[in-house]
Amino acid sequence: MDFFQTLLITVAMFAALVMTYQVIAGSGVAKAQKRRMESLRYRHSESLDAKMESQFKRAVAARKPKTYRIKGSGSRTEALAARLDRTGKNWTITQYIYATVGLILGIAVVVFIFTRAPLLALGIGLVVGAGLPHLWVNRLIGKRTNAFINKFPDGIDLLVRGLRSGLPVTETLGIVATEVPGPVGFEFKTVMDRMKVGKSMEDALQDTADRLAIAEFNFFTITLAIQRETGGNLAETLSNLGDVLRKRAQMKLKIRALSSESKASAYIVGALPFIVFGMIWFINPEYMGGFLTDDRLIATGLGAMGWMGIGVFIMAKMVNFEI
Questions:
Q1: How far apart (Å, rounded) are the C-alpha atoms in residues 310 and 270?
Q2: I need a labelling partner for 88 at 20 to 30 A (CA). Which of 133, 152, 157, 190 fits?
Q3: In a domain, 101, yes or no
Q4: How many separate domains does the chain show?
Q5: Residue 142, Cβ neighbours under 10 Å: how many?
Q6: Distance of CA 304 to the CA centre of its chain
Q7: How far apart (Å, rounded) are the C-alpha atoms in residues 308 and 314?
Q8: Model confidence over 17-52: pLDDT tens digits?
C-alpha cells in the first residue's frame, strides 16, 4: 500500500467511528421531542414555580439575538472576528491568518528536516500549525471570561448600592464602568458608549451580551429587560442575582477541585505514549524509524493516535460539567 491508500483506510476508520458515536448518542429529533414535552409540562403545570420557569424560558427564547446567529453561522469570517474580539486583544483576521500560515510552514520545515518525509511533514504542519492558534485563542477567551465572571458580582453589588442610594440605572452603569477594573469595567464602558450614540439601554446590553456569550451577563441583561417591562424592586432583584452568581462560581470551583484528579490522570494517560515514543526514538532512532517509512506502521500509528484521541475526548467529557 502507498501512503494515500493508507490515509484513505485511516479516514474510513475514523468515519465509521464517528457514525457509530452519532448512532449511540441519539438523534436530534428525539431530543427535540423531549424538549417539547418538557415545555408542555411546564406550561400546563399547576405549580407556581413551574409556571414562572416556563415564562422565563419563553422570555429567554424571545430575546435570542438574531445578529449573533448570523454572525456565528452565516459567515466564518465574522465568527472568527467575534472570537478574536472576545480575547480582549486588538488582533485582526489578517494577523491571525499570517500567524497560522507561518506556523504551518515552520513546523512542516522542521519535521521535514528530521524525517525527510514531505507528506508527513505537511500533515503534521497543517494539524499543529492550524491547531495551536485556535487553542491559544480559546485559552485567551477562557482567561478573559473567568476574569469577567470573578469581578461581575462585585459590579452588580455596586449597582445595587447605587440604586438603593437613589441613583438612576444609567448613572450606576457609568459608575461600574469607572470603578470596577478589568473586563467588567471595559464592557460596561462599551455599553455606556453605545447609549451615548443613541441606543437604548436594553439594545446596548444585548449587543454586549451577544458579543461576550457569557451566561452570567445574559442573566443580567434578561433580568433588567424583564424588570423594566414588569416593574418591581430592581435593587432587590439584582441583589438576588449577585448572590446566585456567587453560588454558581462556588459550585464551579467545587467541581473543579473534585475533578482535578481525573483531569490529571487524563493528561498523564494521553501524554504517556508520546513521551515513551520520544524516549525510544532518542535511544534507538532506527528502531522507531519504521513508523515514518513503513505503510503498515504508519497506518498502525495513525489508528493508535485516533483511539488515543477518542479516549482522551471521552475522559474530558466525563469530567466536564455544565452549571
A1: 10
A2: 157
A3: yes
A4: 2
A5: 12
A6: 28
A7: 10
A8: 666 665 555 545 555 556 666 665 555 555 555 555
Contact 18, 25 (CB under 8 A): no
Q: Which residues contact 303 (CB under 8 A, 6 or more apart)?
A: 10, 13
Q: Is 62 helix (H, G, I), strand (E, B) or coil?
A: helix
On whether both 105 and 204 belong to a single domain, the answer is yes
| 8-state DSSP, 180 | S
3-state secondary structure 201-270: HHHHHHHHHHHHCCHHHHHHHHHHHHHHHHCCCHHHHHHHHHHHHHHHHHHHHHHHHHHHHHHHHHHHHH
Q: Which cell numbers in the block locate residue 200?
A: 437604548
Alpha carbon of 169 to those of 80, 164, 195, 247, 307: distances in Å?
Answer: 34, 10, 12, 25, 55
Cα separation, 31 vs 143, whole angstroms: 32
Query: In terms of Cα–Cα distance, which of 189, 227, 182, 203 is closest to 88?
Result: 182
Domain limits for position 251: 247-323
Q: Is the pTM of this model over 0.90?
A: no
Q: What is the mean pLDDT of residues 118-129?
A: 82
CB-facing half-sphere around the CA of 42: CA atoms within 13 A: 15
**C-alpha grid cell for residue 46?**
399547576
- Nearest CA to 147 out of 178, 181, 173 is that of 181
